Amino acid sequence: MSEQHSPRFRSVLDEYVAYRPGKVARSAEGRSYKLSSNESPYGPLPSVREVIADAALAVNRYPDNACVALTGAIAGHYGVPEEHVAVGCGSVGVTQMLLESIGEPGVEVVYAWRSFEAYPTLADLAGVTSVRVPLTEETHDLRAMADAISDRTRLVFVCNPNNPTGTVVGRRELEEFFDRVPRDCLIVLDEAYHEYVRDPEVPNGLDLYKDRPNLAILRTFSKAYGLAGLRVGFMVAQEPIAAQVRKTYLPFTVNSVAQAAAIASLQAEGELLARVESTVKERERVHDALAAQGWKVAPTEANFVWVRLDEDTMEFSAACDAEGVSVRPFAGEGARVSIGSPEENDAFLAVAERYRTAKRL
Ligand SMILES: *Cc1c(COP(=O)(O)O)cnc(C)c1O
Q1: Secondary structure (DSSP) of 268-325
Q2: Ligand 1 centroid to residue 164 C-alpha, Å
Q3: pLDDT tens for residues 235-257?
Q4: pLDDT tens-digit profile of 2-39?
Q5: Is the beta carbon of 163 within 6 A of some atom in ligand 1?
Q6: Sign of the Cα pseudo-torsion (137, 171, 79, 234, in order)
Q7: Which end of the chain is more exposed for a tag (fewer CB within 10 A), N or C?
Q8: Angle at Cα 151 formed by Cα 148 and Cα 157, nearest 5°?
Q9: Measured from the CB, is residue 39 less than 6 Å from ligand 1?
């Protein structure tokens, strides 16, 4: 008989930090602005709402496990073969599928740090070893990342623009990097914020993967398409990659309402991209206002700004909370602040200004 008196779990869970959802602060007056999760500030378009309501009438049925209609719509919309598309429960779901499809004892996964919080946790759960390569000037150091690849590396993430810093890498650097990655190592280019990019040096991953048999592009309906609550994302890669990754799909995880809403959102792309354009204008306004106030704010191509605060991060975040503005702090590093509606952005800029005045910065 074992001395152990409670169920035994994988040791990786003892160090595993559960994902912390973006919090919601409230001011004394009851104001609450959620700028902590990079969501779209806009509710669903009327056309998409109607499709969601209709789809709700059929939820006694299982969803299409193969996501046939959605896969076809994505392929048609982006001009890629259906065989190159793999759909998942958010692009986080696809990230998990990717890691499960390469995860074996001894395998390494390389990514920049700081980057998207889901990479380390999902890598731990897949039983692979994370190799983190520090950012330089808040940006991916692709040379150092290529140097960090060993014969144990099976996957490397590049998040472009990077979450949480908003910074980008350009086409030439990316292609140089791709050329240095061995063919047996999968490159995952996470383009969750692609629609917000205005820098012409930044390539569209969908133009790059066609002659690269180890490159997978990740996209999501959660940000520019405004469907974060429905959970749908996808990967585009050459057929051998897509076919393997699809095998790891947990059955029925992209629900029928999400499938219908994603198709409707592709059809309403014009209206949605007009909203993205407003967010981009607000991003420029917020970035420039913060810089004018004297903050260290990174150049951003996403729907958020990154303020370098070092040891003042948690105090600044608490000051925002007190006024009902939720931001995403990373202790000792900085705060990520999503671009919301003009009113929300003004509220944040006012808190930031008052903080500087109070601290005599
Ligand atoms: C928000 C985000 C995603 C999207 O996640 P979903 O699961 O699709 O909601 C993916 N990658 C990065 C880097 C993100 O910031």
Answers
A1: THHHHHHHHHHHHHHHHHHHHHHHHHT-EE----SSEEEEE-GGGHHHHHHHHHHTTE
A2: 11
A3: 999 999 999 999 999 999 999 99
A4: 577 889 999 888 877 666 666 688 988 888 999 999 99
A5: yes
A6: negative
A7: N
A8: 50
A9: no
The single-letter code of the amino acid at 246 is: R
Whether 159 lines ligand 1, by a CB cut-off of 6 Å, is: yes
- For ligand 1, the distance from its centroid to the CA atom of residue 210, given in whole angstroms, is 23
Alpha helices in the chain (DSSP H): 12-15, 46-56, 68-78, 90-102, 118-125, 142-148, 171-180, 205-208, 239-246, 256-267, 269-293, 313-322, 342-359
Q: Report which protein residue has its CA nearest ligand 1's atom 14.
A: 192
Nearest CA to ligand 1 atom 11: 192
C-alpha distances out from residue 136 to 92, 113, 203, Å: 25, 10, 21
Supply the pTM of this predicted model. 0.96
CA 222 to centroid of ligand 1, rounded, Å? 7
Q: Is 130 helix (H, G, I), strand (E, B) or coil?
A: strand
Please give the full DSSP string across 48-61, using - where no structure is assigned. HHHHHHHHHTTTTS
